[in-house]
Design brief:
The chain is an alpha+beta fold. The protein has 13 helices and 20 strands. GO terms for molecular function: oxidoreductase activity.
């Protein structure tokens, strides 16, 4: 059960904010014509120790790849990104990074975490059982979950990121989402630390506002990229690694092509229209492009309620005890269930129709009591400063909202499962 302070209606204040449902794209899996990915990795490892490396995309994947290339002897690494600043979508991560079997879990009282694999399979749902060669989903999820502690340890011990706070999030059987104790959100903390580490190495360079236009080929061999910077074309030779998979910001391009049903749902991804068919042009095969996940909650900014660009309402707000309420003031879902389940429950509610009707969003509310608020203090202070969240007194809530809070607090205090199956 998320942490929540045992409280009564005599408490003077709780925190109140409005949310909607919106879309966030997961990185689709990309494979070339060489089916065995182990072969691809082997070939790349051999060439990058003798040739410069070109990395496209400056999110966590691109920065990690750049770091590892340098660690394995690459003579130089040049990273390109068309955005004005590095970080991609990774820098927006506000809840943390998952890891099973870490020292921070043990410090938080989680002595053993053997359920990460089964939790991930459950979250994947029917997609886990799809047969789509060359994707071995079981092997991929096994690697993801069994090596997750090593990933957290690498960020902490080698890169210097604080990930000492552990909390449960939706779909998790135990607390395993790691974030820092300071005010910097985990996505920004990880990106800043990794970028600073890379900049200590004179063999690393990064160019922003550089839009890759095409691959340079010599016969059937890729030898580099062509990119545009300030209106001029440039060639950059070396082994090429693409780490630019997020496309939710390309609402009228790739997203519309592969998931037209999501038209009108806002996103946290910056608008980035004009995705290029660079890799498919040389024979790459795209897989799981329809695997776009709906994140349940994002803030409606009162100043721009109908904006298609939303600010993420972090999942950790629910992980620390926030509850979701319908427009009438009642709870309608287990806030700690999987994202898919919570999103589907939200989308069964009536859509908000303010504005021109083009945007699809849902008028729901998240409430946090003083205990949940204290556990989320760093996030909440920022959200209040942005005008996305406000404090209200309990007596100013709707009667239905007060009744919902009473009922939830009673289940927590008694340690029983509530009506939606959330454990007390």
């Amino acid at each position: 059960m998320p942490r929540i302070l045992r409280w009564t209606m005599s408490r003077p204040q709780i925190l109140f904010l409005s949310c909607i449902g919106f879309a966030v794209a997961l990185t689709a899996m990309l494979y070339g014509n060489i089916i065995k990915t182990s072969t691809v990795t082997s070939v790349f490892s051999k060439t990058m120790s003798t040739r410069p490396v070109v990395v496209v995309g400056s999110g966590l994947a691109g920065l990690s790849a750049s770091y590892e290339a340098l660690q394995h002897g690459a003579p130089s690494v040049h990273l390109l990104d068309r955005a004005p600043k590095p970080g991609g979508n990774s820098i927006k991560a506000s809840s943390g990074i998952n890891g099973a079997g870490t020292k921070f879990q043990r410090a938080a009282g989680v002595e053993s975490d053997t359920l990460f694999y089964s939790d991930s399979v459950r979250s994947a749902g029917s997609r886990f059982h799809l047969t789509q060669p060359p994707v071995d989903r079981e092997a991929l999820i096994t690697k993801l979950t069994t090596e997750s502690a090593a990933a957290v340890n690498w960020l902490v011990d080698e890169i210097g990121v604080d990930l000492s706070v552990v909390a449960p999030l939706g779909g998790h059987s135990v607390a395993r989402t790691h974030r820092g104790a300071g005010k910097t959100p985990p996505g920004a903390a990880i990106i800043i630390a990794l970028l600073n580490k890379l900049k200590e190495n004179e063999k690393f360079s990064i160019t922003n506002l550089a839009e890759v236009k095409a691959l340079l080929k010599e016969g059937n061999t890729v030898k580099g990229v062509e990119y545009e910077l300030e209106g001029k074309r440039h060639n950059l030779e070396g082994s090429v690694l693409f780490a630019s998979g997020g496309f939710a910001g390309d609402a009228t391009g790739l997203l519309a092509r592969y998931r037209p049903d999501l038209k009108g749902i806002p996103s946290t991804n910056e608008e980035r229209p004009g995705s290029h068919d660079i890799l498919t042009a040389v024979g790459a095969e795209l897989l799981d492009m329809d695997s776009v996940q709906i994140h349940p909650t994002g803030f409606v900014d009162p100043a721009t309620p109908n904006s298609m660009l939303k600010f993420l309402a972090a999942e950790m707000l629910r992980g620390e005890g926030g509850i979701l309420l319908s427009p009438e003031g009642s709870r309608f879902v287990n806030e700690m269930d999987t994202r898919e389940h919570v999103s589907n429950a939200i989308m069964k509610l009536p859509t908000a129709t303010d504005g021109d009707g083009v945007i699809k969003q849902w008028d729901i509310t998240i409430l946090l009591d003083p205990g949940a608020s204290a556990a989320s203090a760093n996030h909440i202070g920022f959200y209040e400063w942005k005008g996305l969240l406000k404090k209200v007194k309990v007596r100013d809530l709707k009667p239905a909202q007060i009744a919902a809070l009473d009922k939830y607090a009673k289940a927590v205090a008694e340690g029983t499962d509530d009506e939606f199956g959330q454990s007390g």
